[in-house]
Amino acid sequence: MTLRTLDDLGDVSGARVFVREDFNVPLENGEVADDFRIRASLPTLRELLDRDAALVLASHLGRPKGVVVEELRLAPVGDRLSELLERDVQAVSDVADDEAGAVCSHLGPGEIVLLENLRFDPREERNEAGFAEELSAFADVYVDDAFGAAHRAHASVVALAERYDRRAAGRLLQREVEVLSKLLHGPETPYVAVLGGVKVSDKLEIIEGLIERVDALLIGGAMAFTFLAADGTDVGRSLVEEDRFDDVRRARKLADDRGVLLLLPEDVVAAPEASIDAKRETVRCDAIPRGLMGLDIGPRTVEEFARTLADAKTILWNGPMGVFELEPFSGGTRGVAYAIAGTDAFSVAGGGDSLAAVRKFGLEDGFDHLSTGGGASLEFLEGKTLPGIEVLQQ
Question: Would you call 283 exposed, middle or buried from its count of C-beta atoms within 10 A (0-12, 13-18, 19+)?
Fold first, then answer.
């Protein structure tokens, strides 16, 4: 099936276009702390504005669980978007009340309104038809550019889209599907995936899915310690999910059976706690002192990972190699990021922490694609059907 895009909408001059965005960005002191996702929305918004549409923008932010949380209002997002677009963005104080309806009904070409946090209404996450019906009165055309929410069967993603004959993917969502499809269907080999993060339980499905497709799987971050401990390695106080031992053993056997290289850390940077002043030492993974925990992969591991990455033609990276937010434990993530950026491979980074690391190290230009979807990217690469994409196919 083919994804509907902006090219399929026809003339939108004078039309009100409901654009489902992913403005789930960090806020600090009432301001946007990282505007990557807002910037990623600009191509679609500018194209629609250039086509003389009026825009009704909507997004979730955080997990307010169906109640109003003052710290999760979208007004700071509207302020930042206004600066980037260099035009007014009117942020209303509710999602689907009379005020929002009145503002939307009087929108003219080139005008923009930002609805309040969709998740302030409990009906959003329940995909309720009644909520979608209320929202559908605000616009004539529907566009979804929120790839990061495409794996959620929520009202603004599915039930609302179904109410429009004229519905399409925005340029961001379109690009995500095109790029990730390359990884899912016939990527150039060798194909190497690098996975990190805290809990292996969060990524067991993608691990098994990737083993079916990749030539090598490099595992770092705290999740690596469950693999090591399952083999009987004493990893000190490092985070271990003992209830997942059978799962990781099955994954290793699957990799062996398919001839997939599965690399785990050889050495780590260990410390008693994740703090900037903690006394740390670099040790072999099988020699972590009992009072210490592994908080980053070590230099030998970075070297070994880099050697495998150097031969790759396709690379997927999701998840940091350690507590990279703290400089003493950022070396592993930095080393892997530089190794990927320095290859000639088609490289994709996804997940919030991976993207934050790429930007922290100034390596945006070293990657072919920075995916805005964390869970959505992983589910797509597992071959799952994403409800937000399915509803936009024809």
Answer: middle
Confidence class for position 235, pLDDT limits 50, 70, 90: very high
Catalytic residue among 101, 342, 366, 375: 375
Task: Look up 375 and say whether it is catalytic.
Answer: yes
- The residue among 64, 78, 158 whose CA lies nearest residue 114 is 78
User: pLDDT band at 1, cuts 50/70/90?
Assistant: low
How many H helices and E strands in the chain?
Answer: 13, 17
pLDDT of 22 strictly over 90: yes
* 221 catalytic per annotation: no
Distance CA 316, CA 233 (A): 28
Output 373 or 143, whichever has higher pLDDT.
143
d(CA 20, CA 186): 31
Active-site choice (16, 20, 37, 123): 37
* Residue 199 designated active-site: yes
Q: Is the pLDDT of residue 202 over 80?
A: yes
Whole-angstrom distance, CA of residue 3 vs CA of residue 5: 6
Phi and psi angles of residue 28, each rounded to the nearest 5 degrees, phi first: -135, 125
Q: Out of 351, 352, 373, 388, which one is annotated catalytic?
A: 352
Q: Is 291 a catalytic residue?
A: no
Between CA 328 and CA 295 the distance in angstroms is 9
Active-site residue, selected from the candidate residues 166, 199, 250, 360: 199
Q: Across residues 344-371, what is the average pLDDT?
A: 93
Give how far Cα 233 sits from Cα of 42, 207, 249, 354, Å.
49, 21, 13, 27
> 36-93, pLDDT tens digit by residue?
999 999 999 999 999 999 999 999 999 999 999 999 999 999 999 999 999 999 999 9
Q: Identify whether 64 is preceded by a cis peptide bond (ω within 30 of 0).
A: no
User: Is residue 374 scored above 90 in pLDDT?
Assistant: no
Three-class HEC string of 227-260: HHHHCCCCCCCCCCCHHHHHHHHHHHHHHHHHCC
Closest to 63 in 3D by CA, of 154, 173, 172, 161: 154
